[in-house]
Amino acid sequence: MALIANTTASSILSLICLLTFSLHTTTTTTEACHRTDRTALLDFKSKISYDSVGLLQTWNQSTDCCTQWEGVDCDSNGRVITLARAGYESPGEADAYMVGTISPSLGKLKFLRYLSLSRLVELAGPIPPELGKLSHLTAILLYMNQLEGPIPASFQNLRKLDRLYLNENLLSGTISTNFFQRMSNLSQLVIHSNQISGRIPRIDNLVHLTRLDIHSNNFSGSIPSTIGFLKKLDSLNLVGNQISGSIPTSIGELSKVTFLSLSRNSLTGSIPSSISKLKFLVHFFLSDNKLTGSIPALIGKLTALRSVMLENNMLTGKLPESLGNLTILNHFSANNNRLTGKIPSSFSKLINLQDLDLSRNGLSGPIPSRVINLMSLENFDVSFNKLTGKIPPHKRTFPAFSFEGNSGLCDSPLPPCKTA
Questions:
Q1: pLDDT digits (tens, 9 = 90+) for 71-99
Q2: To pair with 141 at 20 to 30 A between CA atoms, which of 12, 262, 268, 357?
Q3: Model-level pTM?
Q4: What share of the chain is helix, strand, coil (3-state, %, to 5)?
Q5: Where do runs of H (alpha helix) occur along 127-254?
Q6: How many Cβ atoms are within 10 Å of 177's Cβ, its own excluded?
Q7: How far apart are CA 207 and CA 298, in angstroms?
C-alpha cells in the first residue's frame, strides 16, 4: 500500500511539474516579442548615434523586447503596442536626449497604439511617412525635438488618433484643407512653435476637440467661421501667426472654452458681442492686432475672467462700467489703444486686480482714489493719457513713469500741484 501511495504521489507531483512547465512555456511564447517588431525597434536604435542617459540600453538581441526592454509594451500576441522613450529633465541630473533620426522601420509596428518620442531635443530629420500606416495609433507625441519638413500627408489615414503633439520642432510646409477630415476622434491637436504656413485647414468635423494650439507658426487667412462647431473646446490658442480678417461671431458658440488667445495676428473689425456667451472663459487675449470699435459692455457677464489683454489695437470708446463686475479679475491691459472717457469708478470693485495698464490712450478726468488703492494692485500704469487733477494718496508706491505724459496730473510721485 505504501508503494502504491508513493507511486501515486510521485505521479501527481510529476503532473503538477508538467502543467507548470507547460503554463510557463505558453506564457513565455505568448509574450515573446514578434521578430518583425524586434527588428523594427533595433533599426530605430541603430539610427540613434548618441543616447545621453541610456534610454535604449536595455534594447539588445539577447533579451525579449516585450518583457525586458524599457519603454516597450506588447499585447498577448507579442506585438508591440506602446513605444515610449521620452526625454526628461530631473533636478541635479543630466537631461535625457538623443541624437539621431526616426527610423522609417517604425512603420512596421502595425499594432502600435501609443508613440512617444518627445523631449529628446536632438532627434532630427523628417517624420517618416511610414508612420501613417499605423492604423491603430491613438497618440503621437513627438514634441520638443528638431524634426523638420512637412507633417506627412499619410497621417490623414490615422482615424483612431486621439492626440497629436508635434509642437516645438522645425516643421514647415502647409496642411491640406481636408487633412483632418478622417480624424474625427481627435481631442488634442498641438502643433505650435513650428514654421507651418498656409490657411488653417478644415476642422469643423473635430467635434471631440478639447485643445487646439497652433500658436507661433505662419498660418494665414481667416479664422474658419465653422470654429463654433467645436463645442467641447476648452483651449484655443492662435497666437503669433499671420491670421487676418475679423473674429467670427461663431466664436461665441465655444461654450466650454476657458482659454482664448488670438494675440499677435492681423485681425481687424470689432470684438463680437457674442463673446458674452463664453461664461467659463478665464483667460482672454486679443493684444497686438488691428481691432477697432469699442469694448463690448457685455464683457461684464464673463465673471470667470482672470486675465483680459487688449493692448496694442485701435479700440475706441469708453471703458465699460460693466468691467467692474469681473470681481476675480487679476490682470487687465488695454494700453496703446484710442480709448476715451474716464476711468470707471466701478473698477473699485476689482478687489483681486493685480495689474492694471491703461497707458497710451486718451483717457481724461481724475484717477479714482479707490482704484489706485485697491488692496491687491501691484502694477498700475496710466501714463500718456489726458488725465487731470491731483494723484490721490496711495499706500503702495508706484513709479513716476506710471503717471508721466499727463500734463494735467500732479503730486507724488510727480511734482507737487501748483497753488493758485
A1: 999 999 999 999 999 887 555 556 788 99
A2: 262
A3: 0.90
A4: 20, 25, 55
A5: none
A6: 12
A7: 27
